[in-house]
Input
Amino acid sequence: MKKDHEREVLRILWNLFDLGKGTVERLDPAKRLSPHERVIMSDELLLAMKTLSVGALREKDLTAEMRERLLLFLGRDQAMNWSIIPDSDFDPDDPEATFGRGPSVPAGAEKLLFLGLSKSEREEQIGDLEEEFRTKIVPRFGLQFARRWYWSQVSRTVAWAVVRRIAATVDWIFRLRRS
Amino acid sequence: MSKAEYLGKFEELVLLALGRLRREAYGMEIRRVLADLAEKDISIGAVYTALERLEAKGFVSSRRGDPLPERGGRARRYFRLEAAGVAALQEERRILRKAWLGLKPAEVKA
Output
């Protein structure tokens, strides 16, 4: 079972990067894929890299031809979002971890969220937004939309946290005056 | 009904969302069902605030899952509807039905 899966994974990588010898049918790089097909193939590529412990594709490891093929195959957004990781983000000691990070949320928004939430709220709320961003919003709508979505969620979440804190403070002052 | 047992409108929706899921669920899953029920976008912060209050009242319970890479190594917090929560929902429904009994929506005028 695992062997079959690995063979399939290898086939995808071969198709993409000419990594194999000509025993597999190559995909036509000019073939136009629908956005839905692109997302599926993008997920397959992710799975492929993970299964084979390839880790992440580093920008410097991609030849111009590979990059062109990847862009044609996955579509510009998907290729940029999912597959090519800037050298600065690549951890050679832990490629799996680099790979697992996938597209990153806007750093400024994450920082704002971190500062706006109390320690007890951070784990689940930051985690939930990050998971939604990576697993639902980016694959469905692309990175640009996902970043806007993340900012809007962060601003609403932080605004909510501030309002709640003000309400708690007012409540505390009233109780203090009453006692 | 004491203040501790009082169920706000939003809290009621959160409990109903959990009830519809028919299993334990984490914040984003609950938020998605809630957004469908309320027909508007709801911030994740509001969902967690309501869940915290409901947990303090004993209507839901929670547990932490394992850290996940897609969450940047953070864990999910799973919420489960408790028997007290089900009872509170049934009580709310009973009161609302009683309040509407014999009254047609068109008869309610400003």
About this structure: The interface with chain B takes residues 97, 100-102, 117, 121, 123-132, 134-135, 153, 156-161, 164 of chain A (CB under 8 Å). The helical segments of chain A are 2-17, 35-51, 64-74, 76-83, 95-101, 107-116, 119-141, 143-178.
